[in-house]
Structures are given as C-alpha cells and as structure tokens.
Amino acid sequence: MSSPVANRRRTAQRPGDRIFSSSALIAGSLILAILAAVAGFLLLEGIPGVTADPETVSIFEEGVDFTGFVIPLIFGTLWAAFLALVMALPLAIGIALFISHYAPRALAAGLGYIIDLLAAVPSVVFGLWGANVLAPAIQPSYTWLAENLGWIPLFAGPASGTGRTILTAAIVLAVMVLPIITAITREVFLQTPRLYEEAALALGATRWEMIRTVVLPFGRPGIVSGAMLGLGRALGETMAVAMVLSASGVITFDVISSVNPSTIAANVALRFPEAYGINVNVLIATGLILFAITLVVNSIARYIVNRRKDFSGAN
Amino acid sequence: MSTATKTPQPIVNVYSAGRLPRFTPIMVLAGSFLLSSIAFALIAAASPDGEFNLVAVLVVTAVLYTIITYVGSRLVEGPRRAADRLVTTLVVGAFLIAMLPLVSLVITVISQGSGRIDLDFFTLSMRNVLGEGGGAAHAIIGTLMMTGVATLISVPIGLMTSIYLVEYGRGRLAQAITFLVDVMTGIPSIVAGLFAFALFELLLGPGTRVGLSGAIALTVLMLPVVVRSSEEILRLVPNELREASYALGVPKWLTILKVVVPTSIAGISTGVMLSIARVIGETAPLLIAAGFSNNFNFSLTDGRMQSLPVYVYYSYISQGTDFAPYIERAWAGALTLIAIVMALNLIARLIARIFAPKLGR
Q: Residues 42-61, chain A: which have Cβ within 8 Å of B?
C-alpha cells in the first residue's frame, strides 16, 4: 500500500504529461527563436549593405551614400503614415462613436462588421483601386487646390497630372488603417461604465456632453493605442503605396505635386525583384530600419494597451 | 384683486417648448438636397458641357444641412443642443464617408473583374501569353500551396504556444512570449519577406526564390495571429471543466487534449480561418521571397512560384503596349482574391456561430 505522498509524486511524472508540457514549452520558445532569427538574418544580410562602398552600389545616385539614400525614404515613410493618421483618426473616432453610441442597437453589430470588411480587403486590391479609380477621380481637386490654396506650402503644386501623389497614397493608407483604429476605439467606448453615462445624462447633459465628459476621457488610452497601432500598420504598408505613388526620392512637404518622396517598404517592393549583388543588402538594410521603427511604435502602443489589460488590439 | 389682471395665456407644453420638432432634420435634409439640386441643375444648364454633377450636389447638401441645422438649433434650442446636433451630424457623416471607399471598391472590382471570370482564367497559366487570353491557374495553385504549407507550420506551433501560455506558462518566459507575440503582430509584411529571402540566401545561395521561402514568410505573419486568437479562446474555457476532469483523475495533458481543446475547437478553427484570410492576400512578402513566374510550378523547393496577389500586382505594373487585357486580368485576379477572402471570413463566422460553446448562464 503506497502512501499518498508517493502517489502524488507518481502522478507528477507521467510520461504523457512530460512530453506534452515540454512540447508546449518548445513551441513557445520557437516564437522567441523565430523573432531572434528575423532580427539576426536581417542584420547578417543588411550590415554589408550599410558598410558597402557607395561607388559599388548601383541604386545610389552620384555622390550619395547609404545615409543620403535612406533619409528621404524614412522621411517619406513617416510623412505618408502621419498624413494617413491625421485623416483616419478623427474619422475612426466618429465611426466608433456612431457604432457604440448613435446607431440603433439592432444595427450596431452589422455596421461594425461592414467596417471590419474593409480590413479584409487585400492590400494589392486597395493599390489597384487607388491607382485606377481614386487617383484619376481626385486629380481635379488637386488642380483646384494648387490654383486656389497654392500659398499653403502643402499645396504649392504644380498639381500632378495623374493624381498619383503622396496625398492619394495617404488616403488609401487611411482607408486601410481605419478598421484597425475603429475596432480598438469602439471596443473601449463600449466598455465605458453604464452608470457614469446615465449619471451624466441624469444631470441634464446632452448626448454630446455625456460623450465629451464621460466616454472620451474613459477611452483616451484606447484612442492613443489604436492610433499607434494604425500608425504601425501605415508605416509598414507596402503594395498600396508602391502601386499608387509615383516617387522620386526627394524630401518635400508638397502633397499634391508629381515629385514625391517614396517610402521604405514601397521602395523595397519596387526595386527588389530586379536587384542584384550588394543592392540586395542595401535594400535589406532599409528593411531593417523599417523593422526598428515599427518595433518602437508598436511597443509604445502595447505599453499603453497593457496598462489597461481589459482590451487588446490583436483580436 | 390680482385675479382681475389675469389674461388668458396660450397653453405651453413644457416638454416641447424651445425644441425643434422631431421631423426637422429630415425636412432640412430634403430642403438642402432640393436647393442644391436646383442650383447645380441651373449651373449644368448654363455650362457648355451640360453635365449634372451629382457628387457636388451631395457635398453641398451635406454642408447646407450641417449649417442650417446648427444655426437653426442654436436660435431655437440654444448653443448646447446645437453642439449636440452638430456632433450627431459629424458622427453620422464620418460613417457615411467611410462607406464611400468600400462601396466604390466593391463596385469597381465586380464590374471590372467579372469580364475575365471564365474557364480560361481558372485553367490556363500565363505561359507564352502576350496580350489577350491566359489565366491565373498557376497563381491560384501557388497561393494555395504556399498558404497551405504556412498553415501546416503555424497551426501546430501556434496552438501549442497558446496552450503553453494558457495552461502551463507562468513567470518571465510566458510574459516574454506574450510580449513578443505582440511584437510579431506588428512586423511589416515586407520585412517578413526580406527575412525569408535572407534566410534562403544564406542557406541555398544568393538570389534563391522558391515557394517554401514564401511559405516561411507567410508563417512569420500568420503565427502571432493564430497564437493570439487561440489563446483568447482557450481562456474562455470555464475552469470548472478542468477541475471536474482533474477530480476524475485525468492527467493534465489528457485534460487539455480531451476537454479543453474540444470545448474550444470552434473558436480555434474560426481563428485559423481568419488568419488564413489575413495572409492569403499578402503580396509584398511573396513578391520578395517567392518571386513571380508565368508557369505552373508544383514544387515548393524548386524555382519561383507565382501567387494570386503577386499576379494581380504584376499584371498591373507590367502592362504591355496593348494594356487592356493586362488590366482586365488584374481586376479579375483581384475579384477572385476578394471572393476567397470573403468566403474564408464567412466560413469562419459560420463556424463560430454554429459551434459556439454553450456556456450556460
């Protein structure tokens, strides 16, 4: 007859348990390994591109080294993502409020699903739509902006004849990040305590005053992290920009002219298929920079999300 | 004496005084639409091309409606209610504006893409095709093979990782994995492609582009989504079920395999479906890692492999002098792609609805 202590020890050492728990552990550690591999292989292949003699790199223009090559791209990446965010954020907050506090209850879930459909459209389709439908449709308004508001540096012009400017690319990006920001802000608006809302209404607040004093302050972390996650997506988005933008590696704040800065991701997508030799390493190095930028942005977003554990952007 | 000075007063309803009637917004909307239609009809009649600009009518209607409602409400109801009405208008407007690209995109893709949805498109490759004809069968097969392999790799790893996080993981390692999964969610798709390319270049020599490389790139993108969704579903399994199983003397691993996973299998498959839907439309990583090709390729380890998104992209950027058939093929590919993604989404939601765990309350 065995003692209970011996029994417990035997149950703790079942072979099935050990195999299963260690394979779960291995799978978990594999995630660490994959992420380390992503960083490691990019570093291995990217560093030769940074240290290469500029003379040997054929995609550099005369007298330009790696820094001179990558800075306009970083500028373009940040600028396009910033423009997209400026357009998408107010719209996303509006949509989230509409779904959470304005739309009839029966419709709200369906409307949320329609917005989610936007997230399901592949980026290449957005690119095709942006280049073939949006750019020609929006071009006349660029001409108008250049003629009437040309004194604002943003619209200095001359207006692009094709409409394939960084503003068009940013509009497409805005449409693409809209569902991400909307999903997170909607989630947190819905979590506003019912009692607070009712208390505000009972004190005589109008619906907008209730939203301003209760819902928006409560949802501020959600708005910030949603915006950061949207920013991360916009920074890394490739195809839509590559297909819509006609880029020429300059730094300019003019958003409607035919001379536009490119983005890191779009530049890689456009040049990589034909790249050879050291050019490949240069492009991989720019990819590494993009990885670092999105890593910082996403980590900040995650930090803000994790301070409030109740909601997460990944679902 | 005071009663003598009383004069008959009109009866005032305190609940509706100082408020606009309920039907005001609709009347104002109809009025502004009428007004701007008339204005633009006159402009159209006066201008040489005589075109009626419907977009401008709608824009002017929206602006007129916003201004009239705000001013009218401010005069009758005061600034607070006016602000409320203004915000309501803006919020509804935001939703309608977001609908524009979706509606425009769906209409364009269907109208432009349906022209080439025929038998050839689904049975032929682009081998020796210049101009008209040709199809996307090689791209569809490539997409299915690469996405399939990516699914085969990432579902077991992802599922086991989520089991680790929910059932076993405590302490620093679990925290680190959770954080890194979040980080992985944010990897730009093109960086995943560059990683797979760099990996295969170091392993198999410079410029290697094979289907397996594309599958690895997709795995990097798919894995965090699978982990996240399965983790969330596994956490929903009530602890009472686990405890009941332990109480019957069932070991932990069998509890997980026979109780926890079956309970949440519907949610897990929904998550897997959605993650497939997410990666099946990825273009950039496949363009980098698997390249493009005009031929059928049934081998993941030998030669470049075409995929449907890259097919769409390539048809668009490499239009010949006779560009119409290329654009037609691009739209047809886009329509096929959207149809596949929507079907996956629909199936995922159906699974979730039909097999939803019945957590009695």
A: 42, 44-46
Report the CATH number at residue A204.
Answer: 1.10.3720.10
Are B33 and B169 members of one domain? no
Helix and strand totals (H; E) in chain A: 13, 0
Q: What is the rounded distance in angstroms from the CA atom of residue A89 to the CA atom of residue A208? A: 18
Nearest to B189 among A97, A178, A236 (CB): A236
3-state SS, residue B10: coil
Nearest Cα of chain B lies from the Cα of A303 at a distance, in angstroms, of 10
Give the C-alpha separation, A261 to A219, whole Å: 35
**Model ipTM value:** 0.85
User: Can you give the C-alpha Rg of chain B in angstroms?
Assistant: 30
Residues 22-61 in B contacting A (C-alpha not used; CB under 8 Å): none
In a domain, A13, yes or no: no
Q: Which residues of chain B have pLDDT under 70?
A: 1-17, 49-51, 320, 356-361
> Inter-chain contact A128–B330, Cβ cutoff 8 Å?
yes
* Mean pLDDT, chain A, integer: 84
Question: How many A×B Cβ pairs under 8 Å?
Answer: 281
> CB–CB of B312/B330 below 8 Å?
yes
Query: Are the beta carbons of B188 and A209 separated by less than 8 Å?
Result: no
Range of the domain at B106: 17-112
For residue A108, give the chain B residue with the closest CA: B95
What distance in Å separates the CA atoms of residue B328 and residue B111, rounded to the nearest whole number?
10
Q: Using CA of residue B188, residue B193, residue B194, residue B199, what is the dihedral sign? A: positive
